[in-house]
Amino acid sequence: MTTRDRTQARANNQRANQYTEMWVVGSPEDLAVMLHAASATGRLVFVSAPQRMGGDDTRHRRYLRLRST
Asked: Its domain of life (predicted)?
């Protein structure tokens, strides 16, 4: 591995470590509060559309990408 390859690999790892990705599950009201708090702190990068859990479960799930630094 060349010096250039090591430098690029290190830079890519540092960029990947800047974010936390997760699925959150809850009632629409609870998710709205979480998203508002994440947005207010400036950490919210991406949020998916709400997806129903299925069946008679009234909860929703959303995918979040948060800035960790």
From this structure: Bacteria
